[in-house]
Amino acid sequence: MDLKFNSSRKYISISIPSKSQAMSPHIKSVDDIIVLGVNLSKFNKPTQFFICVSGVFMFYLIYGYLQELIFSVEGFKPFGWYLTLVQFGFYSIFGLIELQLIQDKRRRIPGKTYMIIAFLTVGTMGLSNTSLGYLNYPTQVIFKCCKLIPVMVGGVFIQGKRYNIADVSAAMCMSLGLIWFTLADSTIAPNFNLTGVVLISLALCADAVIGNVQEKAMKLHNGSNSEMVLYSYSIGFVYILLGLTCTSGLSPAVTFCSKHPVQTYGYAFFFSLTGYFGISFVLALIKIFGALLAVTVTTGRKAMTIVLSFLFFAKPFTFQ
């Protein structure tokens, strides 16, 4: 703010700088969207969309393969929550490293909001990982493909959005089409389990809320991707650690993983690394295009993951 005193006319002129001028000199723009060190704000919307979609597909396809590979280790299935703990720990470290590499390190989103997002993140990822102890991977993915509908419902109640008939019809058709795979799997695959269905359904409920809360928070406070990942996953790490400690689930998991360090911690590192890269592109999609489009893209990715899962991991399946 500049003060100017005019002696001849005896008045004080007060000029308030614009929003961009008031910012620290190292911050280029409040609208900058940085993903893995790349400023997507320099590109037009179609190019931004192409880059984000490519990143989501590339990293999450590897992520899905590694996730199923970890759960194929004999005896690991009961430790889904411990895998989530390790994953959250790696995400927090990666987020901290990325945040140190950028010049603006300020936390923009309130801590209370991060506590809510962390709780929802624990729900969606922890329950999803744990469900793999009861469902085979394609069945779990197919259920998650149906989250378009709950995300739309969450958008209406949380953000006051309105969707046209075309949006609703497309979401319904995409979800119902993928349910066919689930029905086939339930009659053939032996590990279609009611407990797994309940777990993945609860994960979907958290999914319905988290994308909309993230979108609202990032657009309202202009939070960065690295900030969102660091705070939400580090708080979530504490939640899971407390939960495992209280339920005595930490010691057996640590004992098992110490006997198979490469197949557990080794795979988990690359699993978390590809997941971190993938979530960075998903958050960019949410911030630029909204939660619904981001979920639509990840749903398309999951459909491809199902195909690859049948190619790399043998499963009973038939066309009816």
TrEMBL record:
<dbReference type="Pfam" id="PF08449">
    <property type="entry name" value="UAA"/>
</dbReference>
<dbReference type="InterPro" id="IPR013657">
    <property type="entry name" value="SCL35B1-4/HUT1"/>
</dbReference>
<feature type="transmembrane region" description="Helical">
    <location>
        <begin position="189"/>
        <end position="210"/>
    </location>
</feature>
<feature type="transmembrane region" description="Helical">
    <location>
        <begin position="165"/>
        <end position="183"/>
    </location>
</feature>
<keyword id="KW-1133">Transmembrane helix</keyword>
<feature type="transmembrane region" description="Helical">
    <location>
        <begin position="49"/>
        <end position="67"/>
    </location>
</feature>
<dbReference type="GO" id="GO:0005789">
    <property type="term" value="C:endoplasmic reticulum membrane"/>
</dbReference>
<dbReference type="GO" id="GO:0000139">
    <property type="term" value="C:Golgi membrane"/>
</dbReference>
<protein>
    <recommendedName>
        <fullName>Adenosine 3'-phospho 5'-phosphosulfate transporter 2</fullName>
    </recommendedName>
</protein>
<keyword id="KW-0472">Membrane</keyword>
<keyword id="KW-0813">Transport</keyword>
<feature type="transmembrane region" description="Helical">
    <location>
        <begin position="114"/>
        <end position="135"/>
    </location>
</feature>
<feature type="transmembrane region" description="Helical">
    <location>
        <begin position="230"/>
        <end position="253"/>
    </location>
</feature>
<keyword id="KW-0812">Transmembrane</keyword>
<feature type="transmembrane region" description="Helical">
    <location>
        <begin position="79"/>
        <end position="102"/>
    </location>
</feature>
<dbReference type="GO" id="GO:0046964">
    <property type="term" value="F:3'-phosphoadenosine 5'-phosphosulfate transmembrane transporter activity"/>
</dbReference>
<comment type="similarity">
    <text>Belongs to the nucleotide-sugar transporter family. SLC35B subfamily.</text>
</comment>
<feature type="transmembrane region" description="Helical">
    <location>
        <begin position="141"/>
        <end position="158"/>
    </location>
</feature>
